[in-house]
Each structure stands twice: as structure tokens, then as C-alpha cells.
Amino acid sequence: MNPQEVYCGKETICTVDGLHFNSMYNARVKAFNSTGEGEYSELIGLQTAEVAWFTFDSTLSGGPGSGLNFINDNRTVSVDGWEHRVALGSVGFSRGVHYWEFTIDKYTADTDPAFGIARIDVARDKMLGKDDKGFAMYIDRQRSWFQHNSVHERRVEGGISSGSTIGVLLDLERHTLHFIVNEMPQGSVAFRDLYGVFYPAVSVNRGVTLTLHTGLDAPHMDYH
User: What are the chain's domains?
Assistant: First the structure.
């Protein structure tokens, strides 16, 4: 593979975007000034983090006019209106195994937040899973359903309340998506044959406030 230049400038520290998690990269550097360029250094091995740390991204989620309220360094989200609004995470995944959780900080209305993943061009103004860009589990006080492209199926008993925890396991080695509610699997594999780039996503409306937790180790799941 041909080397790719990722930075040229006066700073001695730089950030390289677009790297995969839990991967090895080789890097080399060279100095230059007004008289010319030096030789490249020997290759340096760089290891990226084993797990992903990310937040909600207010810009990807639609910007100031989205109706979403972000606090806690973009880790907590709520919305004032009754219509669902989709909030996207700040990273997209195309390979590897990734796990994140949401805690339900407030749940006071008869509503059903949706949790899952989405492609970057998902509809932001409807429940996650209503179009073909979102893959979701929506859940109320008593039960949940899996939803994609407005098809909802496989009702599972067991709901949420204030203090509940929702886990999302995206396994792009097996190309599957799982959900966990209060440390218990919510049904079997929710979605299969997932290929491409996916962003962590959630849709909420009035009466729900939730907080995102990342940098977590993936639990072991039954893939049958």
C-alpha cells in the first residue's frame, strides 16, 4: 500500500482522522526548512485504541434547527417536541466489534425511544428505523420491537423506566446487531448482513432524556 501524507506544517503534534479502532499503523516523519528536506525517519508502529470513545455529534444530527438538546459534553440528549428526532454519534464504523450503552435519565411520558445504528443519510425527522437507513429497537414500558424501513417485528417482552440501561452491540466481523436491556439480551440477533459504514444512533421525543456511555468492552453474545 502506498504511503499517505496526513500532515504537513510547523506543528510537531498532529491528529490523524479516519483510522480504524484496534488496528496497527506504520508512520514516518521528516523535517524541512527553507534550505530543503531531511530524510524520512525509520517506521514507527502506532496502535489505535481497542474500544471506541465518542459522543453525540450535534452537527451530524441536524445542527441548531434539529430540535435536539445536548448537554454533558454532547453525551446527554433530549427533545422538547412530540415528534421523534434522530441523534447520531460522532464516529462511523465499518469494521470491528463495538459496544455502547444508554442510561435512561428521565422517562415520564407514554413514549418509545428507538436505539440502534444508521447510515449517514438517515432521515433525522422521524423515528429511527422508519426509513431504510436506520436499524433500530424501539421500546416502551412493557415491550420492544425491531424496526427497519418501517417494518417492525419480533416483539420482545420487557420494557424500560427511569434508570434503565440499553446496550447496543454492533459486530461488523459477523455483520450483526444485538440489543441488551438491563444487562439481559433483548431477543436474539436483531439484524444480520450489515455491510458499509454505520453511525450509533437514537431517536427521542418529549418525555425522554438519555445519556450515552462509550469505551466499553463488548459482552459475549449468542449468535444463533
Answer: 1-50 (2.60.40.10), 56-213 (2.60.120.920)
